[in-house]
Amino acid sequence: MTRFALLLITFILLPPGTALTATRLALHWQPQAQFAGFYLAEDKGFYREAGLDLTILHGGADSVPADRLSSGEAHFATMFLATALERRGAGIPLVNVCQLVQRSSLLLLTRKKDAITDIADLDGRRVAVWANEFQLQPWALFRQHDIDPLLVPFSGSMELFLKEAVSATLAMWYNEYHTVQAAGYLEEELQPFFFKDTAFDFPEDGIYCLAETVENDPETVAAFVSATLRGWRYAFAHEEEALASTEARMRAANLAFSATHQRWMLRTIESLIAPPDGPDEFGRLSRRSFDPVAAALLQAGFTDRLPSYEVFVRSIDYVD
Amino acid sequence: MSIKPGITFKAVSLFLLLSVSILTAVHLYSYLVSRRIIVDMAEQNSRGIGGTIVHQIAARITPVETIIRNIAATLENPDLSDEAIFELTRSIVARNEAIFASAVAFEPYAMIDDQLYFAPYSYRSGDQIVTKQLGGADYRYFHQDWYQLPRLLDRGVWTEPYYDTGGGDILMATYAVPFYRTHKDGSRQPVGVVTADISLAWLQQLLAGIELYDSGYAALLSSSGMFLYHPDQQLVLNETIFSLAESLGDRELWEIGKDAIAGGSGFLERVSYQNRQPSFFYYRPLPVGDWSLCFLFPRAEVLRDITGLTRTTLVINLLGFLVLALAITWLTRRLTRPLINLSHAARSIAGGNLETPMPTHGGNDELGQLTVSFSEMQRSLRDHIEQLTETTASKERIEAELRIARNIQMSILPKLFPPYPERSEFDIFASIKPAREIGGDLYDFFFLDQHHFCFLIGDVSDKGVPAAFFMAVTKTLLKVVADQYPDPGAILTKVNNDLAEGNESCMFVTLFIGVLDLRTGRLVTGNAGHNPPVRLAAGTEPALLPSPQEPLAGAMSGITYTSQEVLLAPGDFLFLYTDGVTEAVSADGTFYGEERLLREISAAGAQRAEQLVGAVDRSVNDFCSGAEQFDDITMLCLRFIAPTDRETTAATADENAASATLAATGERDTITVELRFGTKLTALDDLVGGLAPLKTDGQLTERDHYQMRLALDELITNTVSYGFATGTGSGIEVTITLWPGHRYRIVYRDDAPPFDPVTVSVDPEQRSTEAANFGGLGISLVTTIMDAIDYRWKDGHNVITMTKNLTDRPDNDNQHHREMA
C-alpha cells in the first residue's frame, strides 16, 4: 500500500511524459538485510524519484553477477571488490561506481573446543569454503601461513560446521557468525579469525557496471548510486522499516526469516558500510583500500592484468 | 446478628480462629501433596505421550533408514548399469509410500568417466513417479549438505529439514547414506550418496493432533534448534529456539535448547513465552536426526481439578465456619442471657432499687448458684439499709441534741453589750464564733466588788461534748472561786486544783484572768498557758502584754500561779483572744499569726472595744475566706476609759431585773418603769398607758416607742395565749430601764411554763408546728427589733432580758449579736 502510494506520488511529481528508465540490478546473494538499503530505496520510491524503474534480481550460490552484467541481464550488479577485480582481469570491463562494505566481514570460524588458536593450526584440517566465489582471501591467507587445509566446498548452510563435519568454515560476520549462535553456540564457545585483522582486509559489497554503461549513460549511473545511498541512509535511521522490507522479500522468496538474525545482520552491515570509527568513505572506494586487493590478486596470480585505480574506480564521480 | 464484644464475641472469635488455623493447615498440606501427585502425573503423562510419539515416528522412519542403508550396500556393486541405477531410484519411491523422492548421486566422474554429474533422481509428481538426472552448472549437487554431510561424516545423516519448493511447499527431510566401492588399488573409496526424501507433513499433523490438556501443544526442534513444528507457524523454519530465546532475553529457554539438541530431556515449570502463563515444559530427543520433541501445557489446566476441589472445599469450609459461628453464637447467648438478666438486676439493685425481683434460673449450675448468692446479697443489703436508716435517724437525733447543747453552752457566756451601760470607766466587748464542731472556748466578766472588775478568757483543750462540759465547769468554778479569792494567781491556783481533782480524762484549759481596779487602772493578771493578750496604749503600737509562762490549768494539781501587775492608762485597750484567732488558717494553709493580729489592731484605729473586735473579726474572716473554720474564734476587748472615784455609782453583780431596780432607785438620768400584767389579754389595755412616761420624760422617739410597744405586745400576747392558757401562772412583771438617748433594757418576767423565745426565734425552720403557732412571726419581730435578747429560767420564772441601743448602729452589728445568741 505504501509502495503503491509512493509510486503514485512519484508519477504525479514527475513531469508528464517523462519515461522511467528501466534498470536492472543483480544482487550477489539471496534477499536478506545485507541489501536493506536497496530495498528501502525501492520501497520508499527513491529510484522512481531518480527516474529509474528498477528491477532487483537476486543471486545465490551458483549465480555469478559479473556474467549477468556482461550478458546484459543486469545493468548494475553487486560484487565483492576482489571478485570484481578478478572478473575485470578475466576480461569483463567492470567499473566500481559505489563501494558499500568498506572492510572485510569474512572470517574463519572454529570451535574453541578444537583448540585452533592460530591459522596455522588449520593445516590438514577440513575447512568449508563456499563452492563459488570468495576463494582468494582464504587461499592467500593459507599461502601466507604456508598451510594446506583440506578445502570442502559447501553450498552456504552451516550444517557442515554444526554437525562437526569440518573443523573450520568460512563465514560472514553479519550472517553465518550469528547463524551458528542461533543454533546454540555461545560466542565464547567460538574462535573466529577475522580477515579484517589480517593483511587480506578486502572491501566487499560494491556496485559495478560495465564501463560502457558509465560512458553511455552517466546520468542513470549517478541517479542509481545516489538513490541507493539514500536508501541506505534511510535504512540505518529506520531499523524496523528496513527489517520489514527485508522480511517481505525473504518471505516472497520462501526463505527462512528470523527477525533476530536479520537485525543482527543489519546492524553489523551498518558498522561495515559506515564504520563509526573509520574515515568517512561512505559510498566510495579509496585508493588505500583498492591497492592491497589489486596487489594481492596480482601476486596470487589470479590475474595478470588489472586496471588502474582511476580507470576502475568511478565511484568518486558519483558519490559526494 | 449483633455480636457484642462480650463472651459471645470472644468465644466465636477463638473457636473460628482455631478451626480456621487447623483447617488451613490441613488444606495447605493436602493441597501441596495432591499438587505434587498431580504434577508427577502430568510428568508421567508427558513421558507417556512422548513415548507414544517416538514409537509412531520410529515405526515410520526406521524402515526408511533400513531401506536406504540396504540400497547403499547394493550400490557398492560396481557392475550396476546406468539404467539399473535409474530404475533403482524409481523402485525405491514406488515401493515405499513413506518416501517422496530418492536420488543416487555419484562423485564427479565416478560413474561415467567423462561425466561430471551422475545422479538419477526419482520423485512423486501427482500419481506419477518422475525420474531425472540431477546436477548442472546451477546445481552442483556434490556441494549440497545432503551430499557432503554423509560423505564427510561417513554415516547416514538426516539433513536439516527444508521446504520443498517444487513439491508444493511440503516440509521435507532427507536421509542420506554414503556408499563405497573398492578402488583398483584395493582401497575403499566413497563413490556417492543415496538419499530418501520424506515428507514431514505427517509428523506435523501427528504433533498438531496431540491433546495436552486444553491448550497445551507440542513443538519439534531440529538438531540445530530450528523449529520444525510449532503451532505458531511464524517460527517454523524461521527461528531456532536460540534465536527465540535471544529475542526474548530468556536465558532459561536457551539452556533448555542447548540441553535438548544435545539429546537431553527434562520436565520443568516455566512461564509460557506467548501468554506469560505458568506452564509445564517437557522435552525429549527423537530417534530421527537428533531432533527434539517439546511439550508445553498450562499449569492451571493441569491443576484445574485440584484447584476446583480446593475451591469447593473452601466454600464448604466457609459455610461450615458460618454455621459454626452461628451455633456458637446461639449457644453462648443462651448461656449468657441469664447472666445478662442477672447483670440488669444487679444494676437495678446498685441503682437503689432493693426490691428488684431476681431472675429465676431453674438450673442448679454455676449460674443458679450465682443467682442465689445475688438474692442473699440483696436480702443482706436490704437489712443493712434498714439498720442504716435507724442508725442515721438516731444519729440525727443526737446531732439535734448536740446542737441544742451547743446553744446552751453558748448561752452561758455573757452576750449582752454593753453589759454595764451605767459604768463609764470602761468599755468591754466580747465575741465568740463557734466552729462547726463543739469547742471549749470561754470568756466571762463580772464585778468582784464595786471597784474591781474581773474578766477572763480560756480555751479548753480538745473538742466535743467533754470539752463543752469542761468549759462549763471551768466557767462556773472561776465565778465561784473569783468571788472568794480576788487575786488572779490565787484564783488560778484554786481553780487548777479543783479541776485537776478527779480529772480522769486529763483535760486541761488555758486561762487568762485580769482584775482591774477601776479607780486606779491597776490591772492584776494571771496566765495559765494562755496566749498573752495585746495591749494597745494610746499613742503607741500594740504589744503583747508580758506574761509568765505558767502551766495549763487542770492537768496537774498543786501548781502555784503568780499574779502580775500593770497600770492601765485611760484610753488603753486590752485585747484578749484564743488561738482560734492566731491559728486561723487561710485557704492556702497559712496561719493568721500574732504579727498580723498586731498589725490589724494597730490599723483598726478603734475608739471603742466593739470596734476593735469587729475589725479583727473582719480581718480574720477575709483571711480565711473559703477555708473551713476548725476552732472557736473568741475575742474579748476591754478599754479603760477613765478612773472614777464615784462611790455611789450603781453597779450590779447580775444582769437581770435586780440591776434595773438599783438603777431606778439611784440615778437621776435614768428612767425606770415597772409594769405588771394579768393573765388575760385585757392586760394589753394597760400597756399603752404604762409606756407613756418613757415617751414624755425619756425623749423616746415615736419610732422607738412604737417598736417597744410592739415587742411587748407580742410577748404578752404569747404568754397570755399559750403560757397562761393552761391555767397556771399568775401574771407578768415588766421592768423597763431607759438611758435617754442611749439605750433601754426590758426585763420581762412571767410564771408561765418554761418557754424560750430565743431558741424558737433562731431557726424558725426547725420549730414544731405548735411552736410555730405559738411563737409565730411575733417572736421573730421581737428579735428583729431588739439588739440583744437573753432568756433564763430562774426561780420558776421565764426571765427575758432585751436590750435596744437607741443610737444608729451598723446593720452587721445587729447580725453579730444575733449570731452569738
DSSP E strands of chain A, number? 10
According to CATH, the fold-level topology of the largest domain in chain A is D-Maltodextrin-Binding Protein, domain 2
Radius of gyration of chain A, in Å, reads 20 Å
Low-confidence stretches of chain B: 646-668, 761-774, 808-821
Second-tier CATH architecture of the largest domain in chain A:
3-Layer(aba) Sandwich
Radius of gyration of chain B (Å): 69 Å
Helical residue percent band of chain A:
40-55%
Give the CA-based shape of chain A: globular
Indicate the CATH class of the largest domain in chain B: Alpha Beta
Number of helices of chain B: 20
Derived structural class of chain A: alpha/beta
The coarse silhouette of chain B is: rod-shaped
Question: Can you offer a commentary on this structure?
Answer:
The complex is a heterodimer of chains A (320) and B (821). Chain A is built from 15 helices and 10 strands. Chain A is of the alpha/beta class and 320 residues long. Chain A has 2 domains: 218 residues, 3-Layer(aba) Sandwich (D-Maltodextrin-Binding Protein, domain 2); 92 residues, 3-Layer(aba) Sandwich (D-Maltodextrin-Binding Protein, domain 2). A 5-stranded mixed sheet of chain A has the order 2-1-3-10-4. Chain A is globular. The two termini of chain A are 33 Å apart. The C terminus of chain B is likely disordered. The radius of gyration of chain B is 69 Å and the shape is rod-shaped. Chain B has 821 residues and is an alpha+beta fold. Chain B folds into 5 domains: 125 residues, PAS domain (Beta-Lactamase, 2-Layer Sandwich); 100 residues, PAS domain (Beta-Lactamase); 52 residues; 225 residues, 4-Layer Sandwich (Phosphatase 2c, domain 1), CATH 3.60.40.10; 167 residues, Heat Shock Protein 90. In chain B, helix 9 packs parallel to helix 10, helix 13 packs across helix 14 and helix 16 runs antiparallel to helix 17. Chain B has 20 helices and 27 strands. The longest helix of chain B has 68 residues. At the A-B interface, strand 7, helix 7 and helix 12 of A face helix 3, helix 5 and helix 6 of B.
